[in-house]
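User: For documentation purposes, I need each entry recorded in a consistent format: the amino acid sequence on its own, followed directly by the corresponding structure tokens. There are two entries in this batch. Please keep commentary to a minimum and don't merge the entries.

Assistant: Recorded as requested. Entry 1:
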Amino acid sequence: MNAVEVRSSRFSIPSLIAIVAAIASFFVGAIMGLVLAGVAILFGLLGVVLSFSSRTRGGIVSTLSILAGFLGIIAAVVKAAMWMMRG
């Protein structure tokens, strides 16, 4: 008998880190939001590259986190501008 090993594909760790960082970037201050948005973009790009493997999922999650990272950068800039205008 030939045993076939069935492996389920799973999300890559970089794609999960990317989406968590992207979401967190909206809930912190301007500087940390900018840092987290950068982390989301970098790990999102890594997640997209890893998602080309048939054993790994997370391409859509990584792509969404890249987009959310760019929105996080815009939000961080707006937060910083509002803080400077108050100051």
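Entry 2:
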Amino acid sequence: MALTLVESAKLSVNQVYQGVVQTAYTFSQILRFLKFDAIKGNAYQYARENAASTATVYDPGDTIAESTTSFTQITTALKRIIGDAAIDEFAQQTRSDQMDQTAVQIALKVRAVAEQFESLFIAGDSAGNSKQFDGLRVMCTTANSNRVGCGSDATDGMVLALEDLDYLIDTVKGPVDLLIMSQKSKRKLKNLFRGSGASMETRSELGTPVDYYSGIPIAATNFIGDALTKGGTVDCSEIYAVSLAEGFGVVGMQNEGTMQSVERPDTGVMRLPGPQVVQIGPMETVDANKWRVRWYTAIAAYSNRGIACLDGVRS
């Protein structure tokens, strides 16, 4: 069963694990919502839906046309996101009376790993860098019919309008569970609402306000960029609409051996996703202990119709 980091933190009684995943989803709005599947080995092979099959009505005696869904076989390899932190023993021993120096440095390294994951989730490109997994930008193309442009597919970038967001949402042929945009695009969206005399819906989740558009939560990220080029316009951004439905939308992946295990009487052994914290031990040449935060992970998109990108977004 695919789980979010938020759900996983509730299921575990391991305080270190809870602290790690809570730090991860605190600093990545995307990780609050993304679900993760456990996989065996270092790669996952699956069929990605390209185009849906069709059905129609017939009279008796009519010839029935055959139509099947088309798929592309995809193999996604797990990638390694790793960060090391060397904690000086003098600082640990003399400055931890108010705040544990090891805990502080590990939390900061978890944040860095979460931000690196979010960066790859958006802009990862395994063709350009084999150490990365493919992100949404690579998966959304005109050929896949899941990349559309602002201003009714204008050649150049256009100022965002509410109709553009509706167009983006309609491009996903299934439930849309998350909208992802830059901070600048989110400010523009709020300004559009204020200009119409309305305000965006906001709910408090995990003690943090989350904005919604048409009942869909919005995750703001710093990794889309606001200086992308479309046509002759060089100050554009992108907005993504993502389904998180199992077997249709986007899901995170992690090797099951690197997951936190918890046994429950109702479900048996469950695998909980998230970065691992490993103590490497004392360093040889300096008076410090080294800790490593690592995450063997990637993402999968089960259908081209489960994700969409609106490009050429100007604010």
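Summary note for entry 2:
The longest strand covers residues 288-301.
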